[in-house]
Each structure stands twice: as C-alpha cells, then as structure tokens.
Amino acid sequence: MNATVSSAVIAISNQDRSHRARLIAGWVFAILLVVALAAYGYDYYTLSSAARPFSPKHAVLRPSGTIGLKLGFLGLGMFLAIFVYPLRKKWAWLGQQGSARHWLDFHVLLGVSAPFVIAFHSSFKFHGFAGIAFWIMLSVSLSGLIGRYLYSQIPRRVNAAEISMAELQEIQTQLSQQLAQQRLLPQTDLRSLLRLPSKESVSRLPMPIALVYMMFLDIARVFRVASIRRHALPFGQKLTTLAGFLPTSNIGLERAMLLAREEASLAKRVLFLSRSQQVFHLWHVVHKPFSYSFAVLALIHIVVVMMMGYF
User: Fold this and answer.
1) Greater confidence, 120 or 92?
2) How far apart are the C-alpha atoms of 168 and 268, rounded to whole Å?
3) pLDDT tens digit string along 215-266?
4) Who contacts 74 (Cβ-Cβ below 8 Å, separation ≥6)?
5) Can you tell me the mean pLDDT for 111-128?
6) Sequential DSSP letters for 168-185
7) Nearest-angstrom CA–CA distance, 94 and 7
8) pLDDT value at position 177?
9) Radius of gyration of the chain (CA)
C-alpha cells in the first residue's frame, strides 16, 4: 500500500515538473516573440498611418502582409485554443485529460499572449469590428488574470484549510519560539508577518474592496518578509539581498520565513474564503459574456476579411 502511494506521489511530482517546464517554455516563447516583433517593427509601428505605405516593412507587417497575416492565423489558433478550457468542463472525455490546474495555467498563458499577437497583427490599428473585438479581448485577458488569482485563493480542500486555520495559533507559537531560540528576531516581527484583519471586518467589506484587500495583503507580505530579513542582516548582506527582498544564506532564518509565509498565506485564504467564492461567482458572470462577445466579433471580422479577399 505504501509503495503504491509513494509511486502515485512520485508520478504526480513528475507531472508537475513536466508541466512547469512546458509552461515556462510557453512563457519564454511568448515573451521572445513579442520582443522580437517589437524590435523588428518599432520603426514601422511608430509611423503615422499616412507614412506606413512608404515604409519598406509595410508589405510584411501590415495586417494582410507576410508576417501580419501569419500573426492573424496564430492569433486565430490561440483564440480557438483558449476556448478548449471551458469545453473541458462540458466534455467528459476531455475533462479526463490532465489536471484542471494545468489546463488553467495554459488557458491564462494564451489569454495573456493573444492580445499582443492580435495587436501586432492589426499593426496597432483598432477600428471597426476588429477594434471592438480587440478591446473586449483585452478586457477578457485582464479579467482572466483576476480570475486566476481568485482561483488560487480558494483552497481545493476546504476542510483541510479549516483544520490548518485551527492549528495556526499553535504553529505560530512554535515559529516564534524557533526564532526566539535562534535570537534572530523578536516575536513581534513574526506576529506582524502573520497579522490579519478580523473575520467580522472582512465580512463587512464590499466585494470589490475585499478583492483589493486580498491583493494588498499578498503584496504587503513581501515587504514584511524583506523587513524581517533586514533586521537580522548586517549592512553588507542588506545590499547583496536587495534590502531583504532576496533570500539570505541563513538556513534557519529562511526556513522560518518560508513556514511563516505559507501559514500567513493559508490563513489569509481561509479568512477570505467566503468573500473569494462570492467574487469568483461574480467574476464568472462578467467573464463569460465578454468572452462570447469577443468570439462573435472575431468571427465576424474573419468572415468579412475572407469575403474581401485578403486571404
């Protein structure tokens, strides 16, 4: 039995590593593509509409040009791939393929990259149906990033999160004792890292404010960790760690910081759980109509371009 469990854990770990490698490769390719297009076409894209036809790059970078048309096809492919993720929830055979989290990561990658590809395809001229579709797509992309953040705030196993919340005080005390024994930091510094608002104050927050507050706590945690590091470092190491924002060579301190960050993050997610679920539900109500509107406008644009004989 233990051998079977160990094999399953190893298999999942290998899948996660492979997924991370593919995801990193996807992001690197997308970034390099955008940088290469921006570098090559900078002198063209910065020209006025009247001056562009006289540029030697007009034949390749205009929407119907050699590169512009290929970018249009690439954008269309990305657009179709983006909608595979919601289809996965409706088609049972597709839902059995891979992990939902892995699919979501590539869904976000395509959703963030596609507006850039479409912008270069259109040579940054947003008019008519194509322009409306682009701005809707950009709104969908930005809302998708918010949705991905909300998804990460909802523990997949609520019961386990609640248990961790109940044990948080004990773990916090243990961490404080560890730091006190190492004589690295006063306990007040660790408490500041784990400091959270009360349940009552969170329940009274409007949903948009709750979303902003969650993000603020995540950002503030980075600065609090840096501040704690700075207290334990001499001046020279403060410089090499960029004022505490980079890890130190102190294994004991970094282990305590890692545990404290994990517990602070978990406590925050459980504290905001009900609010996260409410905002996530509202996000679905907004995100889906915008996605479908973009799909309709993009298809209209493609049909019109085909009828006009551009390809």
Assistant:
1) 120
2) 11
3) 888 888 888 888 877 777 777 777 888 887 888 877 777 777 777 777 777 7
4) 117, 121
5) 85
6) HHHHHHHHHHHHHHHTSS
7) 25
8) 62
9) 25
Residue with tokens 């910081």: 257
- Sole residue written with tokens 């004022």: 243
Alpha-carbon span 258 to 201, nearest angstrom = 27
Which pLDDT does position 160 carry in this prediction?
Answer: 47
Give residue 178's pLDDT: 61
Q: Which amino acid is located at 34 in the chain?
A: V
Per-residue pLDDT reduced to its tens digit, 1-22: 444 434 444 444 667 788 888 9
Entry pTM: 0.65
Which of 9, 213, 29 shows the shortest CA–CA distance to 110?
29
- C-alpha 5/C-alpha 28 separation (Å) is 34
Q: Which of 49-53, 77-81, 195-199, 280-284 reaches the highest mean pLDDT?
A: 49-53
Tokens of 298: 């993009």
CA distance 168 to 174: 10
